[in-house]
Amino acid sequence: MVRVLLVEDDDAIRTSLGKSLTAAGHVVTAVAAGAEGVAMVARDRPDVLLLDLGLPDLDGHDVLAMVRAVSDVPVIVATARDDDASVVKLLDAGADDYVIKPFSSAQIDARIRAVLRRLGQDQQGESSLDLGALRIDPRSREVTVDGASVDLTRKEFDLLLALARRPGAVITKRELLAEVWGLPWGGGDRTVDVHLSWLRRKLGETAADPRFLHSVRGVGVKLAAPEGS
């Protein structure tokens, strides 16, 4: 049973969607204001947050930033904009998925199941992944290098895990966009590049002097243990 927090200011949508998701077996709490939603995320720790961007008290992007400051709860954003730049901006800001208005309750239910499957349930029985001095624990979402803990954001961890599941294999940026960001099309290579740069810095390496992350020009990137480790 999934605990869903719905933040939507439209009374009709909030009521209708709440009833439909409840009928689908979820436990739904619905509020109309962004500030109240942020407070409930911090206090009640829902399993999923459904966030409308057009709220009366706060800009939805600001609400997303506030949520990410206090929680790693999976966030599905409802937006009227479907251009690549807007979608990439949302995902980079911390959204885990998005739906374009108008949408159906069946689509929302499917998105909830998909995002939970992608972000957590598939990792429950997965063992730690070791590449030399790098250890990744999918269950606790913890990473260590040379025994020292590495503090990663959700997206940085998901990117590292996607690469670690295929050690030594060159993975294209399009594949990473689809698997980590849920974007099954091109156009967001810069998003991958930026997150790889952040990830390299936290792992104590650079593109010019790689230890674990190796770029293959014109193809993609691979994660591999250092030679001799």
Folded structure, characterized:
- With 229 residues, the chain is of the alpha/beta class.
- It has 2 domains: 117 residues, Rossmann fold; 95 residues, Arc Repressor Mutant, subunit A, CATH 1.10.10.10.
- It has 8 helices and 11 strands.
- The strands form 3 sheets. A 5-stranded parallel beta sheet has the order 2-1-3-4-5, with helices on both faces. Strands 6-7-8-9 form a 4-stranded antiparallel beta sheet, with helices on one face.
- Helix 1 crosses helix 5 and helix 6 packs across helix 8.
- The radius of gyration is 19 Å and the shape is elongated.
- The model has no long low-confidence stretch (mean pLDDT 87).
Give me some keywords for this one.
Arc Repressor Mutant, subunit A; alpha/beta; 8 helices; single chain; phosphorelay response regulator activity; 2 domains; 4-stranded antiparallel sheet; elongated; WH-like_DNA-bd_sf; about 230 residues; Sig_transdc_resp-reg_receiver; Rossmann fold; DNA-binding
Chain-wise SSE layout:
Elements: E1 3-7, H1 11-23, E2 27-31, H2 34-44, E3 48-52, H3 60-70, E4 75-79, H4 84-92, E5 97-100, H5 105-119, E6 129-131, E7 134-137, E8 142-145, E9 148-150, H6 154-164, H7 173-180, H8 189-203, E10 213-216, E11 220-223
Parallel strand pairs: 1-2, 1-3, 3-4, 4-5
Antiparallel strand pairs: 6-7, 7-8, 8-9, 10-11
Helix pairs in contact: 1-5, 2-3, 6-8
GO biological process, one term: regulation of DNA-templated transcription
InterPro entries: CheY-like_superfamily, OmpR/PhoB-type_DNA-bd, Sig_transdc_resp-reg_receiver, WalR-like, WH-like_DNA-bd_sf
Pfam families: Response_reg, Trans_reg_C
